[in-house]
Amino acid sequence: MVFLYTLGIRLYLILVRIASPFNPKAKQWVDGRKNLFSRLEAAIGTGNRIAWFHCASLGEFEQGRPVIEEFKQQYPDIKILVTFFSPSGYEVRKNYAGADFIFYLPIDTWRNARKFVRLVNPEVVFFVKYEFWYFMLNRLKQEGIKTYLISAIFRPDQLFFKRYGLWYRHMLRCFTHFFVQNHQSEQLLLSIGFSNVTISGDTRFDRVSQIATQAKDIQAIGTFKNGEMTIVAGSTWPKDEELLANWFKGCSTNIKMVIAPHEIGEEHIQRIVQLFEGVPTVRFTQAVQSDLANARLLILDTIGKLSSAYRYGEVAYIGGGFGTGIHNTLEAATWGKPVVFGPRYQKFKEAFDLIAGGGGFSVKSQEELSDTLNSLITTPELLKHGAQFAREYVDMKRGATGRILDAIKVN
User: Fold this and answer.
1) Catalytic residues (predicted)?
2) 202: number of Cβ within 10 Å
């Protein structure tokens, strides 16, 4: 299995390098790892105490961020290293002030893992939610470095829990402790012999609550809303936008919509404009005061505004559910907004919980989307109940950060 794993890593590296001249993200992935060890060594130097946090991408970073910041408060003398696997995380957060060092994770080979761990020499390591790198985890284990998996969630269909999953379970043995989101994850780990597990909850609830308390008014969105009922659609993909456009153009109720697409390239923005042809539309980056109040559609063609934008809507639509999976429902729920999303939400426990409590609504078709949105905007009782449940659900689930750090003591 080690041979096949190494072969897979090598093939992945070759494919990314081949794609890099033509694919911007692949190019960032490759370029970001050039001279990685020399840059890392120059930045870290010697004599520093290091806590290392690894995040696959931006979503995992936001999930781990409350732990990073609280850890820094409790241990101000320890430097924080954050690594990313994906450019989607690194490029957005490479200047994050809460970390002392931010780098890409090197490709997982035996040689790279040995060099990286010896160079960084972390006192403690946190992997956020997932990412199981065989050589890196084994090196940390061999060096006796405490390694924690936080906000972890496990599912029965994962390879760890199959009869042929012995090799994959070996990676789990490298973790000092698992801080999991739910009872099912705890039971799955117990079923294969791991008792070093604590149900701590999901640190994303702490993060979205933190975002809400720190959010600033976005004057342009307030001017656009102008006191009218508004749908805020976040992290949308083409299929989401097609369905939303079809509903919006045929909606008899006088409402407004904010769309924050997942991709904000010019070609994609123009596609949205075309989908909503005939609807008075304004782009956030090009808006002038006189246009905002009269527009019916506002396109957020920028990043960093979505989590605060949800506050201006009565209902939130969360994109991705007609593709690989929904994006973050909690960013909207923390503002007390009922959330609507597509059918692919199975990896997210909060989606099930929100649906069960009346704060979330999954739709599978144009007809279901239209019926659901129409019901929410025309039935005050339904809207009020959904909003109340969403807010109370997030409030109830906070506290994972404290539970994790209370259980971890660094000398």
Assistant:
1) 60 (proton acceptor)
2) 25
How many CB atoms neighbour CB 4 within 10 A? 9
Whether residue 209 is contained in a domain is answered as: no
Q: What is the pLDDT of residues 300-345, one digit of tens each?
A: 999 889 999 999 999 999 999 999 999 999 999 999 999 999 999 9
Q: Do 362 and 223 belong together in one domain?
A: yes
Global pTM?
A: 0.84
Q: Is residue 53 situated within a structural domain?
A: yes
Three-class DSSP category at 90: helix
Helices (H), 259-399: 266-275, 289-292, 306-309, 330-333, 349-357, 366-378, 380-397
How far is 334 from 281, CA to CA, in rounded Å?
28
- Exactly one of 41, 60, 91, 263 is catalytic; name it: 60
Contact 125, 68 (CB under 8 A): no
CATH number of the domain encompassing residue 63: 3.40.50.11720
Number of domains in the chain: 2
Residue 294 lies in a domain: yes
CATH number at residue 296: 3.40.50.2000
Cα separations (Å) of 46 from 43, 118, 252?
9, 11, 66
> 76-94: per-residue pLDDT in tens?
999 999 999 999 899 989 9
| Tokens read off for 388 | 């109340």
Bridge partners of 236, per DSSP, are 261
Of 144, 176, 201, the residue at which a domain comes to its end is 201
Q: Which of 168, 201, 234 is the last residue of a domain?
A: 201
Return the pLDDT at 410. Answer: 85
81 and 184 co-located in one domain: yes
Alpha-helical (H) ranges within 334-379 are 349-357, 366-378
Q: How many CB atoms lie within 10 A of CB 383?
A: 18
Residue 189 domain boundaries: 2-201
Q: Which helix (H) or strand (E) holds 167?
A: helix 166-172
Alpha helix (H) residue ranges in 203-324: 203-214, 219-225, 238-250, 266-275, 289-292, 306-309
Coil, strand, or helix at residue 10? helix
Identify whether 60 is a catalytic site residue.
yes
Here the tokens at position 37 are: 């060890």
| 126 shares a domain with 57 | yes
**Percentage with pLDDT > 90 across the chain:** 87
Same domain, yes or no, for 48 and 104?
A: yes
By the 8 A CB rule, do 58 and 88 touch?
yes
